Input
Amino acid sequence: MATITSITLHSSTSSLHPNFHSSLLTFSPKHTHDHSSCWVAVRSVSSTRQRMLSHTVPRGLSIRSAATKPAKSPAEEDWKIKREYLLQKKVRSVDVKEALRLQKENNFVILDVRPEAEFKEAHPPGAINVQIYRLIKEWTAWDIARRAAFAFFGIFSGTEENPEFIQSVESKIDKNAKIIVACSAGGTMKPTQNLPEGQQSRSLIAAYLLVLNGYTNVFHLEGGLYAWSKEELPITSEK
Output
């Protein structure tokens, strides 16, 4: 996908003052290794115009940006911090063949955090699905702005963090269970020459959230379900 650093839209003249133009609204794509998101920043044209507006707006009326980005969630924490915490908590990665053996012989649970549609198409037998990202559902100004930003790049099924992820996991999996978290690509915590801090993925983000919320036996599927399929290990579907 072609990358565009930013798109700046100039809004129409403010009705509050004939010579005042509203703030610039900037859409900018922000990519992670396993999940794409978009952010919107609202910035003032100039402090002079801000002062001009302050003298024009009636007393008691406050003006806010309706598309303000919500506060950063734990899932949005810097990858470096997440990786250090995972290593501190001794979360280790297992390859797909070891994961299959652990599932069969030691009652490990495979937690597939991909979207529900992908899970239904193909997944390891016995795996449990709780998607860590979902299609954007809400219609706040922020969500509408994100939809517009996704649509600009031809993406009409933009995703957002699933706010019910932990709650859903807790309803399905005991906190003492041994869990192997899986997604499509897998990511890695292992440093390489090109990626000295490894590579973030949905499954590693999910593992981080699980550990933060009291799960103590969390593992990560190295190579993801792509590697599982490539090794021709058992899969099933719900079609």
Q: What stands out?
A: Residues 182 and 221 are 5 Å apart (CA to CA).
